[in-house]
Amino acid sequence: MSSQPMDADVYAGLQQSARDHLWMHFTRMSSYDRADVPVIVRGEGPYVYDAHGKRYLDALAGLFVNQLGHGRTELAEAAAKQASQLAYFPLWSYAHPNAIELADRLAGYAPGSLNKVFFTSGGGEAVETAWKLAKSYFKHTGKPYKHKVISRAIAYHGTTQGALSITGLPDLKKEFEPLVPSTFRAPNTNFYRAPEHGDDLEAFGRWAADQIAVAIENEGADTVAAVFLEPVQNSGGCFPPPPGYLQRVREICDEYDVLMVSDEVICAFGRLGHMFAGERYGYEPDIITCAKGLTSGYAPLGAMIASDRLAEPFQHGTNMFAHGYTFGGHPVATAVALANLDIFESEGINKHVRANEGAFRATLEKLLDLPIVGDVRGDGYFYGIELVKDKATKETFDDEESEKLLRGFLSKALFESGLYCRADDRGDPVVQLSPPLICDQQHFDEMEQKLRAVLQKAWSML
Ligand SMILES: Cc1ncc(COP(=O)(O)O)c(C=O)c1O
């Protein structure tokens, strides 16, 4: 249940250095003026341990990353072996065996004609790469004005300036404006708060997809290069695609010659019980962006996987896609990815997710008896729990209440209870769950019990 606590002096030194020097990401640094920075030192299976030796269930897989759980020595050994053999070489006009083998393997998993793999160091870079490819492709094929992107409200696609421009979260963007121009928003698939067809999921999906066509028409199809969407949108708290939605988006993209980019930075590699989401929902995008679970987080790696058609203009004469990253397709990261995918196969990880996702859903749905739980939604091992002030009217919390509830209480209380997950209010307030894919009923129960206790307390404090 616990592990050895860190020496008190070492711990005090780390706290001081963290305050003095470590700039944490998306972190209000002042939160740690009077509180300790949580220091996680070790992981084993779906659990992590802090410097005091306290155990937490890692119900967010780090950051939607750790598919196989912590402490997998096979992955650590694959990294060590590769680092001793060839630590680094770029993919700029050269190759190494791991990158070649992994590209071949990803092309095999990806749907249809998505056969060309461009490696990056992470998800945001994959999104940048996809937009740049879309622009460049149309320039090479006689449609030079096609450059704009349609994406969906509240969607997160990364923090680099292009990916942030595609992101649909105004509060995240405003300090960095002006961003890359030419991105436009369409509705997401939040059925719980459907502005139209709230009683008919399929009709709602059709409407939401058709709004993408409206956005394309409004901008002029000859200026729009791509639509970026996640199969299940994370931000806002897990919006799965209604039946027929992704197929309708595909039709619209074909009709207007706009590329469909499936941002699977979270959804790929087992999160939805398949390597890629196309297999689950039956659609074929033009581009997939992926990262995170590709290595289960044992090394940083991302990829953009493009169709043969998009790569074609770059296969001849002096043409090239003038784009790259020093660490894209790093030998150690690709070695880890290969070992990770080997384990997916040998341990039947996707099958395990498909066999257990119903139990995960059913366990989380028990929480619907709490007055604060408005909706439980998601697919695979990827869920959002929306919190409401009034279940009957679906009334949500105002900014002040949300601040008090999520930041002031929930995030801390959940962590103190031994559950690492995320309380988020980038849309309406939600708790996000995305556990390692090795989890089973005992872990689902642990999540439900800890959430129940903390959410009951939150409700009593309102
Ligand atoms: C859908 C999606 N796209 C892109 C990104 C950006 O990935 P990264 O943080 O690796 O740059 C994320 C990160 O969470 C994401 O969820």
3D structure, described in words:
This protein has helices at 8-21, 61-64, 73-85, 97-109, 123-140, 161-166, 170-173, 201-219, 245-256, 277-281, 308-311, 331-346, 349-365, 399-416, 441-461; strands at 40-44, 47-50, 55-58, 114-120, 148-152, 183-186, 224-229, 259-263, 287-290, 302-307, 373-379, 382-387, 419-420, 422-424, 430-433. The chain has 462 residues and is α/β, with parallel strands linked by helices. The strands form three sheets. The protein has a seven-stranded mixed sheet, sandwiched between helices. It has a four-stranded mixed sheet with strand order 1-2-3-13. It has a four-stranded antiparallel sheet with strand order 11-12-15-14. Strand 8, helix 10 (277-281) and strand 9 (287-290) form a beta-alpha-beta unit. Helix 3 packs antiparallel against helix 12 (331-346) and helix 4 (97-109) crosses helix 12. The structure holds pyridoxal-5'-phosphate (PLP). Pyridoxal-5'-phosphate binds next to helix 5.
What is the element layout, followed by pairings?
Elements: H1 8-21, E1 40-44, E2 47-50, E3 55-58, H2 61-64, H3 73-85, H4 97-109, E4 114-120, H5 123-140, E5 148-152, H6 161-166, H7 170-173, E6 183-186, H8 201-219, E7 224-229, H9 245-256, E8 259-263, H10 277-281, E9 287-290, E10 302-307, H11 308-311, H12 331-346, H13 349-365, E11 373-379, E12 382-387, H14 399-416, E13 419-420, E14 422-424, E15 430-433, H15 441-461
Parallel strand pairs: 3-13, 5-6, 5-7, 7-8, 8-9
Antiparallel strand pairs: 1-2, 2-3, 4-10, 9-10, 11-12, 12-15, 14-15
Helix pairs in contact: 3-12, 4-12, 8-9, 13-15, 14-15
The structure holds pyridoxal-5'-phosphate.
